[in-house]
Design a protein that fits this description.
heterotrimer; A alpha/beta; B alpha/beta; C alpha/beta; B: alpha/beta; Rossmann fold; C: 6-stranded parallel beta sheet; 4-stranded mixed beta sheet
Chain lengths: 472, 264, 222
């Protein structure tokens, strides 16, 4: 997708004015937050599981090369194929090659953020292969030629009226008179339309929530069952996954599964958790004839050993954006990147460069709510700050900010001078405040006074007043 | 008391006023001094203090932030305790100075030792000085906003509520989502002022819905943001730092004054 | 350099490899002897307690359930399930010997077919190999006994599980899996199913029957 992160401010301004979007965003604040809180409340061990999850993923990253080698050996032993892609481009070529060898015309897809990251659909379409998204949310946004606005609820920015409009526009084989006013009617229609596509597809592509080194299994976690139909009904199953999805054993996977659904949707467990290992067995009567895994780096190895390594613990639950006041205000598309919200604010600069995504780690109040709910305890605000440091070092920080900071730091580092300037400035500002004790306009503070009044200072500064009174 | 070393009976406390209290709201400083002295502390307010360095730190300017960290440590490390009437500035001194200076061989350990002495005002009173009640009265209802840094970096949530419950005549009316950010975020509210405005607008709805007469919080940045928005909206709700009420010093006009057109 | 080597050497370059022998040993021992992590207390109950919790948890997901003393009751219960919902008396199943031994032929009105689903079946019956009380989850293993298409294509899925196979937690399910298949040997898919298919993609409204079964009915035997 085209990265519009440089236009974050304009995107955000548009989002704030978009009444439809604001209505839809209300569902994030109301739904996800309360559901996660209830699930956490119901499991006394939740916080201990978070600590365990962090330790587990840290262990994996420390031994990532070895676990990848072990995983690869097990996939091969079960009759599957493993492909390695350093970049998005390589990954796309590998997948196209698999599709061409399978003489694929249609590809079904389970929901996969990594396939969004490598912009797979566009590429397949350009090469004459139709890619059909089967997750209901993904299907809806594919009809709209949009990208996900949330990593687990891709169509959360839409209201049901918009979905109805799209279905009427695209499903022209159905009668105009049909009633689509209720969400359940929309769901049934999508189910019927997509059901046929699973059988037509030559290749089914899914992502993976986990790759298990012990058994060479890929794991998908879904509620709809679309991922399972995608991978069971096509002749070829292709798993696309980034390299940090590895966990050592089945038990380790079970440990993280306890955190994933609760953090994401507040479910104890998603409806379908499927461990897939290799192609169909000789005695099997269903399942794919071939099983491929495409392991993708695309910037991950560059994060290892850097101050952003901890980001690779991310299990893509979406809790950070579900709890982010900035995400609640502007939604996912404003970020202009594949991954929105706090995790995107850290990951996007790693994948696309800080010079193109500088707004993302800056557009945070550092309220810390993301870190407090992250199942993997990723210090997201700290890493956003590291990106601001990289920006500052590279002189990418906007000039106004740099001059302002320089001016402020000059005084802050000279206490005596600061004291004299502050005393004078505050007396002046206090006088301007008058009886009302506030200012509705203030030069150089338009960002503040456009929306709120500026409280007037009381007059003398505290440090000076205290020491004068105490005769120090 | 005999088992206590002398500094425990009457510790020497350096009050880190924070730049916003120093410049905008001396009342909070005087309230903090009163509360600390009532809790048996000897309070000093060093003249050489300016700012904790957060604006630089959070803008990626580590060099200036580190300079200010060293300056603050030098001025304050001789005290038994360093107390700030702000969760965000206290967290900067306590949590972020050690990180900021960790690569500086001469300062890393000093920053760690300094960190142990730093506390936010209200939690210092309850957790360290074991204050269980205050001698103050306030006739009216208040609502309390949990400022993010204090809440999530220092775990301040029960402490102010515990002490507010002992203020004579005071009724606490909890607002919905008191633990959600007010949209201030330091330089965020200037750089992304329209997003900040959207966030604070949700906050003021919850403040109004609480039905309280007075909004309290422990951080001047958040308070100025919420007070400025409430007054711009014409709200009659007054705004003060929690220390002012706990110290019984509510004679000065509230932050951003009183409403000029009363809506209620 | 091929991509595999490039990726692995980039990783190796950033890892602390001062003691490579210890690093390899850590990985080998973790893979050879999997260790369960923290298991929540919730599912750690006596057998009857586990069954009660399992049924409570799966009911919350929108599934229905019943319990019967003997496996021979299952055909009649399945027939009644279809009748009560005004569904045709047709059922698809795999070759699971446990299901075959139940005597479905006694239900004369019930037309039973065997094999995977081609999408035309309204209802199917499968036998689970384990159930998890903690989360209300069934474990089904793919294969001719219980083809995976039966779990996802029909509108109604009836799943039988034996009372003695209801365990406390997923770790117990994994132990059973290893017992059945041997360590490191997996069926093509292991399907953990916790309720009927659902979606909340439209305005966060939870709706059942997204792509998989609209209804899941669990019969506990024993």
């Amino acid at each position: 997708m085209e990265l519009t992160s440089p236009a974050f401010k304009a995107n955000a301004a548009r989002a704030l004015q978009d009444a439809q979007l604001q209505k839809a965003l209300g569902n994030v604040e109301k739904g996800f937050v309360a559901k996660r809180a209830a699930a956490r409340q119901a499991l006394p061990e939740f916080e201990a599981l978070r600590d365990q999850g962090r330790a587990l993923k840290t262990h994996v990253l420390e031994h990532l090369d070895l676990y990848l080698e072990a995983y690869e050996a097990k996939v091969k032993a079960s009759g599957g194929h493993v492909h390695w892609a350093e970049s998005a481009e390589q990954a796309r070529e590998i997948i196209l090659d698999i599709c061409r060898k399978a003489e694929a015309k249609t590809v079904t897809k389970g929901k996969s953020m990594i396939s969004e990251e490598i912009d797979l659909n566009t590429f397949l379409e350009e090469n004459g292969i139709e890619a059909v998204e089967t997750d209901l949310g993904e299907y809806i946004i594919q009809l709209r030629h949009e990208h996900p606005s949330h990593i687990i609820a891709p169509a959360i920015h839409l209201n049901k009226e918009q979905v109805e409009e799209d279905f009427r526009r695209v499903h022209t084989h159905l009668p105009d008179s049909r009633d689509l006013s209720e969400p359940v009617a929309l769901l049934s229609e999508a189910r019927a339309v997509l059901r046929q596509r699973y059988f037509e597809a030559d290749v089914g592509i899914t992502g993976a929530n986990f790759l298990i080194a012990e058994t060479g299994s890929s794991v998908i976690v879904t509620n709809e069952g679309n991922g399972d139909l995608t991978q069971s009904l096509a002749r070829v199953h292709v798993v696309v996954a980034s390299i940090e999805k590895i966990v050592p054993t089945l038990e380790d996977c079970a440990s993280i599964l306890r955190l994933l659904a609760r953090s994401a949707t507040g479910q104890d467990m998603s409806v379908y958790t499927t461990f897939s290992t290799g192609p169909r067995r000789p005695e099997d009567e269903d399942g794919p004839e071939a099983y491929h895994v495409v392991l993708i780096d695309n910037g991950r190895t560059a994060m290892l050993g850097s101050e952003f390594e901890e980001m690779l613990r991310c299990i893509r639950c979406g809790a950070c954006m579900n709890h982010c006041p900035v995400y609640h205000a502007v939604g996912g598309h404003a970020y202009g990147s594949v991954y929105p919200g706090p995790m995107g604010a850290v990951l996007t600069p790693s994948l696309n460069g800080i010079n193109r995504s500088g707004h993302l780690p800056n557009a945070s109040t550092f309220c810390g709510r993301c870190e407090s709910v992250c199942p993997m305890k990723i210090p997201l605000p700290k890493m956003m700050r590291h990106w601001r440091e990289r920006e500052f070092e590279k002189n990418l920080t906007p000039a106004a900010t740099r001059y302002g900071l320089g001016f402020w730091a000059f005084f802050a580092k000279r206490p005596a001078l600061y004291r004299r300037a502050a005393g004078l400035g505050m007396r002046l500002l206090s006088a301007f405040g008058g009886e009302k004790r506030r200012l509705s306009r203030l030069p150089l503070a338009g960002g503040w006074t456009d929306f709120r009044d500026m409280p007037a200072p009381e007059g003398e500064t505290f440090v000076a007043a205290f020491n004068r009174q105490r005769g120090a | 008391m005999t088992d206590m070393p002398p500094e425990a009976a009457s510790p020497r406390v350096g009050l880190f006023a924070t730049c916003l209290v120093d410049l905008f709201r001396p009342s909070v400083g005087f309230s903090a001094v009163k509360l600390l002295e009532e809790a048996g502390c000897r309070v000093e307010v060093p003249m050489a203090q300016t700012c904790c360095g957060q604006p630089a730190y959070n803008s990626g300017d580590r060099a200036d932030a580190a300079d200010l960290a060293r300056q603050v440590i030098e001025v304050f490390e001789g005290f038994d305790y360093v107390v700030a009437p702000s969760g965000s500035c206290a967290a900067m001194l306590k949590k972020h100075y050690p990180e900021l200076l960790s690569g500086d061989a001469r300062w890393a350990e000093r920053a760690e030792r300094f960190s142990d002495k730093v506390f936010e005002l209200v939690s210092f009173l309850t957790d360290i000085r074991k204050v269980v009640r205050v001698e103050a009265a306030y006739q009216g209802s208040v609502t309390y906003h949990d400022s993010c840094s204090g809440l999530r970096e220092l775990g301040i949530s029960a402490q102010p509520r515990k002490l507010l419950a002992t203020v004579e005549g005071l009724e606490l009316r909890e607002m919905k989502d008191s633990d959600i950010c007010c949209g201030f975020g330091g330089t965020f509210c200037i750089k992304y002022s329209d997003i900040s405005n959207a966030i604070v607008s949700k906050k003021t709805v919850n403040i109004e819905a609480s039905g309280a007469d007075l909004l309290l919080a422990g951080d001047m940045g958040c308070l100025m943001n919420m007070a400025g928005k409430l007054k711009r909206e014409g709200s009659a709700i007054e705004v003060r730092h929690v220390a002012e009420v706990l110290a019984g010093m509510t004679d000065r006009p509230p932050i951003a004054g009183t409403a000029s057109r009363r809506e209620r | 350099m091929d991509s595999r080597t490039a990726i692995l050497s980039k990783i190796k370059a950033t890892r602390d490899r001062r003691d490579e022998t210890a690093r390899r040993a850590a990985v080998e021992s973790r893979l050879a002897r999997p260790v369960a992590g923290l298991i929540p207390a919730r599912g750690q109950l006596d057998p009857e307690g586990r069954i009660a919790l399992f049924l409570d948890m799966i009911e919350r997901t929108g599934a229905t359930h019943e319990r019967t003393a003997g496996a021979e009751d299952v055909p009649a219960l399945a027939a009644r399930y279809l009748r009560e919902r005004n569904l045709p008396a047709r059922l698809k199943r795999g070759t699971d010997p446990r299901l075959k031994a139940m005597g479905f032929e006694r239900e004369a009105a019930l037309s039973l077919t065997e094999g995977p689903s081609d999408g035309s079946d309204l209802a199917a019956i499968s036998h689970a190999d384990f159930a998890i009380a903690e989360t209300g989850t069934l474990m089904l293993l793919s294969g001719p006994d219980n083809p995976v298409t039966l779990t996802f294509l029909p509108e109604h899925h009836i799943v039988v599980v034996r009372a003695e196979d209801v365990g406390g937690d997923m770790e117990a399910a994994l132990a059973r899996l290893r017992m059945l298949k041997g360590k490191e040997t997996m069926p093509r898919t292991v399907n953990f199913v916790s309720g009927p298919s659902r979606s909340a993609d439209i305005e966060q409204t939870i709706l059942l029957g997204a792509h998989g079964p609209r209804a899941l009915h669990v019969i506990v035997v024993g």
